[in-house]
């Protein structure tokens, strides 16, 4: 298949591009490289030394002899070039990773809030609009988030895959309907993913676009069989307080002997998936497009759930590094349960990788190898969800 990967220079996008190319798909990466500029803005680098895009692509050509095309383009802003690209490539599938994805970054300041909304909503809107004009038969696979469901209102019930049966009551009348699961985002970033969902519903209904929205949990790990083939193919490893995600941060902190930074009581339960499973899930999603005119297909892309303090205690037992409970910079529930249905990807053939599969050691080894690149002053999360009130 011809596949365009939007955001293919990022953490999930790079590993996915290589995996799809290795599977024999013809891959075109689109990226405006903003994530590399954000590293400069924040004064922090990926723990692993990621190479410039031309070097990455040269290494892949040498390793697998399967060329990947790269187009530098802002999906949110360069609409005419995006539409022309879709018309030229005529993709069978478009994988959409091209959004600002860090919740703490999205909460840093008024600029960061507005940038995240502008970038993410405009990127998704432009992709859908350009598909209608240039490739209405293509299948869009979007990376959404488990965080659209929120963690406060599930009342212990299993979170279904996107939709829920509801009874509407109005003026003494009643009707049973199927609706999108009520959203409850916990950050400006997570809110943009709930807005994406409405765009998908509209374009599937009005234009018959084929759309899969993958509600993904927190991705952990860093390498895949393809990124391991050559050191120039190394994937990003974010560990800083804005972009680093919790499990990779704990494993990296353990590798350098930094106390494990648990926010609050650590009673937050979240969904997780290893990067190796991320790339497999996307390959499975591409192979099984919905029909034109079908409702948006929503799949929960996660393999297990864990409480943050349980993860920290487990890693502490493994490594001897202490756990440190810190004031929570976020506005989130201190304790929550989380039960998630992920039947669709399992039926499509996903064999889940679990924490117990020995891959945590691999992350620790990668972190130990590059420990001299770590700036310890950037580890603690400093982005606050709620602005402190000015003193009287
Ligand atoms: P990332 O920041 O590493 O990669 C995103 C890529 O998109 C970057 O290379 C960036 O330069 C590019 N990009 C952003 N805006 C763009 C624009 N307007 N035009 C062109 N390129 C643009 O993020 P990631 O961790 O790879 O996440 C990819 C997607 O998966 C995101 O949409 C995120 O919401 C979703 N997701 C990630 C995780 C996770 O734990 N990493 C979990 C669930 C969902
Ligand atoms: N946390 C800690 N200590 C830390 C870092 C985080 O206790 O050092 C806690 C947070 O307070 C939060 C939980 O761990 O309760 C998860 O935080 P995270 O940064 O790992 O994940 P999150 O902000 O939700 O975002 C990440 C990705 C995002 C994706 C989301 C999937 O950055 O792109 O959408 O995971 S999900 O969480 O399922 O919505």
Name given to the CATH architecture: 3-Layer(aba) Sandwich
CATH class: Alpha Beta
Order of helices and strands: EHEHHEHEHHEEEEHEEHEEHEEHEEHH
Can you tell me the number of structural domains?
Answer: 1
Structure description:
- It is a single chain.
- With 392 residues, the chain is an alpha/beta fold.
- It has one domain (2-378): NAD(P)-binding Rossmann-like Domain (Rossmann fold, 3-Layer(aba) Sandwich), CATH 3.40.50.
- It is 37% helix and 20% strand.
- It has twelve helices and 16 strands.
- It has helices at residues 11-22, 34-42, 53-64, 79-89, 103-106, 110-134, 188-207, 246-256, 275-287, 308-319, 343-348, 359-369, and strands at residues 2-6, 26-31, 69-72, 93-96, 139-145, 158-159, 163-170, 173-180, 210-216, 218-220, 260-263, 269-274, 297-301, 304-307, 323-326, 339-340.
- It has a seven-stranded parallel β-sheet with strand order 3-2-1-4-5-9-13, sandwiched between helices.
- Strand 1, helix 1 and strand 2 form a beta-alpha-beta unit.
- The longest helix is centred in the first third of the chain and has 25 residues, at 110-134.
- The relative contact order is 0.16.
- The model has no long low-confidence stretch (mean pLDDT 96).
- The structure holds nicotinamide-adenine-dinucleotide and sulfoquinovose-uridine-C1,5'-diphosphate (USQ).
- Nicotinamide-adenine-dinucleotide (NAD) binds at residues 7, 9-13, 31-35, 74-76, 97-99, 101, 119, 123, 143, 145, 216, 218-219, 236, 245.
